[in-house]
Design goal:
72% helix; mainly alpha; single chain; 200 residues; 0% strand
C-alpha cells in the first residue's frame, strides 16, 4: 500500500517499473483518505511527466478523480490528463465535464490554470473538440482576465490557437483577443496579438 506520507518521487519511480503499484496508485484516487488521494495524484503526475504512455489504460479513473473535493487531487489529475491528450485524446474527452467544474470552482488559481491547460490542449486536437471546449475557454478568458494566473492561461490559449480549430471557434477567439491586442500594453498585448496572428 502506498503510504500517504511516502516520497512521491520514489513512489513514482517505483510505479514506473511495477504495473501493479501503478494500478494501486490510480486506485488510491478513490480512497477515503484525502491525504492518500493527494499523494497518489502527485505521484501519478510525475509518472505522466516521465512517460504518459504508462497511464494509457487508466485515463477513465484519472478523469473520475476530478469529482474529488480537494483542489490538489484535481489539479494533479488535470496536469496528468493534459499530458495524456497526446496518448489518447478520445479517452480524455471524458474529463471535459470535470475540467469545466474545476475551471470555475471557488478553489485556488492553480486549479483554474490546470483546467484551462487541459481544455486548451484537448480542444486543439480536432475541430469538433474545439467546439466542445470553446465556450469554457472563452468564459475563462473573461472571468480570469487580470488574475495572477492569466498570463499562463494565455500561454495555453496560444497553443489552442495553433490547433485544428473550427472556423466559428477561430472567429470567436479572434474577436475575444482584439481588444487586448489593440488596447493593452506589454506582454498582454504581445500575447493577444500572437493569438490573432496564429488564427490568420
Amino acid at each position: 500500500m502506498t503510504e500517504p506520507t511516502g516520497d512521491k518521487h520514489a513512489v513514482a519511480l517505483a510505479a514506473m517499473g511495477d504495473p501493479n503499484l501503478l494500478s494501486e496508485l490510480v486506485s488510491n484516487l478513490g480512497s477515503s483518505s484525502r491525504r492518500l488521494r493527494q499523494n497518489s495524484a502527485s505521484a501519478i503526475t510525475e509518472v505522466a511527466n516521465a512517460d504518459a504512455n504508462l497511464l494509457a489504460d487508466h485515463i477513465s479513473s484519472i478523469a473520475a478523480a476530478l469529482s474529488r473535493h480537494e483542489a490538489q487531487t484535481r489539479w494533479e489529475c488535470l496536469d496528468a490528463l493534459t499530458l495524456l491528450v497526446d496518448v489518447d485524446s478520445r479517452a480524455c474527452e471524458k474529463a471535459i465535464v470535470g475540467a469545466d467544474a474545476a475551471l470555475f470552482d471557488e478553489g485556488p488559481g492553480t486549479l483554474h490554470l490546470s483546467a484551462m491547460r487541459f481544455l486548451c490542449k484537448l480542444g486543439a486536437t480536432t475541430q469538433k473538440r474545439s467546439e466542445k471546449t470553446w465556450d469554457y475557454i472563452d468564459e475563462a478568458i473573461q472571468c480570469y482576465h487580470g488574475d495572477p494566473e492569466f498570463y499562463e492561461m494565455l500561454n495555453a490559449v496560444i497553443g489552442f490557437s495553433k490547433g485544428a480549430l473550427a472556423p466559428s471557434v477561430k472567429r470567436g477567439l479572434k474577436e475575444r483577443m482584439v481588444f487586448d491586442a489593440e488596447n493593452a500594453k506589454g506582454l498582454l498585448q504581445r500575447r493577444a496579438q500572437e493569438i490573432i496572428d496564429n488564427l490568420a
